[in-house]
């Protein structure tokens, strides 16, 4: 490992490059960060990088974003964390806000609406693929501290809650974590600093901007297990409660979060844009990523203790399978938002691509978008 710290200009350039090229979600981000920090520049050794991945997976929020911020903190301190984290996030934010303006304007072109309807139809299949991809490792680890019967029970509870509970899903995830602490007979004591219990009892006022900030804070602080786990929560707030978006528009937002570079949590920027224009989109993104910066800036030096804490491990043994179940269950409201028969055909094709042929989400969504354009231009009806 090299002892030479890079300049902030180098951090800005290298992390910005990853932010521009990071299509494909966390696996792509981790591979690019490993190549940069371990293989090419040797700023971190392989063991430290793997430990950082594990520690970031113990935190709520987008794990690959937190890993990017951590790596920048490790090589250039707090200033590096701020610069590197922003460079990683901003390119995707610019792209997704530009696409949000195109898809959410008053009367977008027919082909744009058709592409959105096609990509949106495939989102439920991508959610199932994301959840299914997390199951084998979790199932394999289950006997280490918990047991597989409880693990399966938490998975099932998470799936059901995501399908029917909407914004109350968060309480179920936290409840599973505490239930596993009790099952493992781990004394609760001062529970690890997870904001969920506080957030569940708090809220923001101040009209639309306060509501955007509250939704974004829940997204950024409570997304255990990946971006899809907070889809039901966002859908309940944006579509059902505040009526900032229609169900088809929300599907477009999720699809845009998948096909743009950077973290999937950027979906919340589209929700903010729908609620209050460009300022709402920027506000939503800033609030959603603020917990990730806070965790690294004020807690990265304690990551070793975090991984060794029995309470954290026990909590995650319950919350993690529930989060995987929630990702799988999110496919139910996403599929229920479809309102044209041809969209179900596209969904079936997307399921074949993702689950049968194991194609990635970006390719699947682009193919689905193209199918939507072809079908609508051939006379198929657009969603209402």
Q: Explain this structure to me?
A:
The chain is mainly alpha-helical and 384 residues long. The protein has 17 helices and no strands. The chain has 2 domains: 80 residues, no CATH class; 283 residues, no CATH class. Helix 5 packs across helix 11. Belongs to the chromate ion transporter (CHR) (TC 2.A.51) family. InterPro entries: Chr_Tranpt_l_chain (IPR014047), CHR_Transporter (IPR052518), Chromate_transpt (IPR003370). Keywords: Cell membrane, Membrane, Transmembrane, Transmembrane helix.
- Give me the secondary-structure category: mainly alpha
SSE order, as H and E?
A: HHHHHHHHHHHHHHHHH
Proportion of beta-strand residues: under 5%
Q: What's the total number of strands?
A: 0
Question: Per the principal axes of the C-alpha atoms, what is the gross shape?
Answer: globular
Low-confidence stretches: 190-203
Q: From the alpha-carbon coordinates, what is the Rg to the nearest angstrom?
A: 20 Å
Q: Average pLDDT, to the nearest integer?
A: 85
Q: How far is it from the N-terminal to the C-terminal residue, by CA?
A: 57 Å
């Amino acid at each position: 490992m090299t002892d030479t710290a890079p300049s902030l200009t180098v951090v800005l350039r290298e992390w910005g490059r990853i932010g521009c090229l990071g299509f494909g979600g966390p696996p792509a981000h981790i591979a690019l960060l490993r190549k940069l920090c371990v293989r090419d520049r040797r700023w971190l050794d392989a063991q430290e990088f793997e430990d950082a991945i594990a520690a970031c997976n113990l935190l709520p929020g987008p794990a690959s974003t937190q890993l990017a911020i951590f790596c920048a903190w490790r090589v250039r301190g707090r200033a590096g964390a701020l610069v590197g984290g922003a460079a990683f996030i901003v390119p995707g934010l610019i792209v997704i806000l530009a696409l949000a303006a195109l898809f959410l304007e008053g009367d977008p072109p027919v082909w744009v609406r058709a592409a959105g309807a096609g990509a949106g139809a495939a989102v439920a299949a991508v959610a199932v693929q994301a959840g299914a991809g997390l199951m084998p490792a979790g199932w394999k680890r289950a006997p280490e501290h918990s047991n597989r019967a409880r693990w399966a029970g938490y998975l099932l509870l998470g799936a059901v809650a995501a399908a029917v509970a909407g914004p109350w899903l968060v309480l179920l995830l936290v409840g599973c974590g505490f239930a596993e602490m009790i099952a493992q007979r781990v004394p609760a004591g001062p529970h690890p600093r997870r904001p969920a219990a506080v957030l569940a009892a708090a809220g923001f006022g101040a009209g639309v901007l306060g509501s955007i900030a509250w939704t974004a804070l829940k997204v950024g602080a409570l997304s255990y297990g990946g971006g899809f786990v907070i889809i039901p929560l966002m859908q309940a707030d944006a579509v059902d409660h505040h009526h900032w978006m229609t169900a088809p528009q929300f599907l477009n937002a999720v699809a845009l979060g998948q096909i743009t570079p950077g973290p999937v949590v950027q979906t919340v920027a589209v929700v903010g844009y729908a609620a209050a224009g460009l300022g709402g989109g920027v506000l939503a993104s800033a609030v959603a990523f603020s917990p990730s910066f806070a965790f690294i800036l004020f807690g990265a030096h304690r990551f070793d203790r975090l991984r060794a804490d029995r309470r954290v491990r026990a909590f995650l043994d319950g919350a993690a399978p529930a989060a995987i179940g929630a990702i799988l269950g999110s496919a139910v409201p996403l599929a229920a938002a479809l309102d044209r028969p041809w969209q179900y055909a596209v969904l079936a094709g997307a399921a074949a691509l993702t689950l049968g042929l194991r194609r990635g989400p970006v390719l699947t969504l682009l193919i689905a978008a193209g199918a939507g354009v072809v079908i609508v231009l051939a006379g198929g009806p657009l969603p209402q």
